[in-house]
Task: inverse folding
């Protein structure tokens, strides 16, 4: 996946993107994103890596000495301006697709009949 491509919009990816687009200019570290999205680190970190590969996210390691902090060094992530726009558009598409699917067959979309 090169720059400009769209990652697969799994439900987990949508949860991660919803957390990030809530405050697109804010930097968040990995475990903070995990907690906000309600997902495990093993699910979130591969999603963050994919979003960075396609150019939706940028990241950097914190500068502080982890020994002085008494915890592991954190990697911070933030949506790029282009990534924020693409994420909002992708989330809007998934919401409209889910709405259409619900109107066609409510049971498939998790509704009740």
Result:
């Amino acid at each position: 996946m090169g720059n400009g491509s769209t990652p697969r919009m799994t439900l987990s990816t949508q949860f991660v993107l919803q957390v990030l687009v809530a405050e697109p200019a804010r930097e968040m570290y990995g475990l903070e994103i995990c907690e906000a999205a309600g997902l495990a680190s093993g699910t979130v970190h591969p999603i963050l890596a994919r979003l960075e590969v396609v150019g939706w996210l940028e990241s950097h390691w914190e500068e502080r000495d982890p020994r002085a902090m008494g915890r592991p060094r954190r990697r911070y992530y933030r949506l790029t301006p282009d990534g924020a726009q693409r994420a909002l558009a992708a989330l809007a598409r998934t919401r409209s697709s889910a709405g259409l699917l619900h109107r066609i067959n409510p049971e498939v979309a998790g509704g009740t009949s």
Notes: Strands lie at 28-29, 57-61, 75-79.
